[in-house]
Amino acid sequence: MNGKIDNGAVLAGRYVVDSQIGEGGMQYVYKAYDQTLCKFIALKTPKDSSAEKRFIRSAQSAAKVNHPNVAKTLDYFEEGDQKFLVEELIFGADLSASLLAHVEAADPYITAHIFHHIARGLAASHHAGVIHRDLKPTNIMVSGGLKLEAIKITDFGIAKLAEREFEEAIDGGEESIGNSKTVLGALPYMAPEGIEDKNRISMASDIWSLGAMMHEIITGEKPFGAGLKAIPQILKGSRGAYPAFLFSNNQFRGANTEVTSVIDQCLRLDPADRPTADELVSACSNLCYPETQRILGRLRDKRYKWGFIAENPTNRDVFYHSDSFYGTPPVEGDEVWFAKYPSQMGADRAHPVIKLK
Fold it and tell me: Which InterPro entries does its entry note (predicted)?
């Protein structure tokens, strides 16, 4: 087991460790300062020295991909008996912390926006011959918080480091799975062929994982559940119906129908029936979604079916109609997340409006 690195340590004669910023099941992640290029970077090192050969291969895989929706691999070096990967530092948090922790479910427009960006990054990786193997919300980095200023895939090939842990946990049953944060985090997004036989993992497995993520984002629910109970559902491709609220509101029915149709294609049981990443990019390009930046505010005036939101930080009035509510309707005083558009009525118009947790 490799130990943690002290703050202030200088590695490879140029990287000054600032602080630990993450710890996954297989690696430590540090913020460090590159004295040569005068910028902060992310520094990753495996926890388990027995996985170092696989760590090198994952670094080589990541270095092959160059795309705005993929975190850049900048360097690889060895210091003593430890291996290190240098990656672009994304000033933000993962998709789970940036979005899923704040909303019950995301509207179809923001879901399509996220879907499209991740699909582009995935297509670039597949063009480079690289399979991610572990797509999940915690491996998608977001800068700008709920503004979603940048969306980048990270941690290519890390799942290879955990193959033994996956096999032992699944063979050991529910207690073993419950004791493995790595397996618990990955299982809801794993493709059925990957659960049955790791040698069957392919680019189509990444497509399944992306579809599972998007299902969770648009519904607020993991498509097959979590833990050991999810395995038979994943293997059968058995999902329940989408929540009624996706289609009960005329304002969102059409867009949700289009987005869920693409999700359904990703979650086809036979890998050969799923779209390729290029086909997925094309499908997402046909989804109608605005690039209008989302902002925060507070519902301060609710009447019968309309009222006003106090926009942060200006406190200006933004008009809303309750038809623009997505998911659980907010009540007066609730913090909300919305896009605004010019209106001839005086105040700007908010749509959609989502209650924050």
Answer: Kinase-like_dom_sf, NEK_Ser/Thr_kinase, Prot_kinase_dom, Ser/Thr_kinase_AS
Dihedral (CA of 175, 178, 180, 184) sign = positive
Structure tokens at 16: 């000054």
The pTM of the whole model exceeds 0.85: yes
Containing domain of residue 252, as a range? 92-285
**CB neighbourhood size of 13 (10 A):** 9
Considering 134, 155, 206, 348, which one is annotated as catalytic?
A: 134
- For the question of residue 317 being annotated catalytic, the response is no
Residue 262's nearest CA partner among 236, 241, 282 is 282
Q: Flag whether 75 is in a domain.
A: yes
φ and ψ of 78, to 5 deg: -120, 140
DSSP 22-91: EE-SSEEEEEEEETTTTEEEEEEEES-GGGHHHHHHHHHHHHT---TTBPPEEEEEEETTEEEEEEEPPS
Question: Which amino acid makes up residue 5?
Answer: I
Establish if 71 belongs to a structural domain. Answer: yes
- The domain total for the chain is 3
Residue 123 sits in the same domain as residue 266: yes
Distances (CA, A) of 149 to 117, 265, 282: 11, 27, 22
**pLDDT tens-digit series, residues 130-170:** 999 999 999 999 999 999 999 999 988 665 655 555 555 55
CATH number of residue 242's parent domain: 1.10.510.10
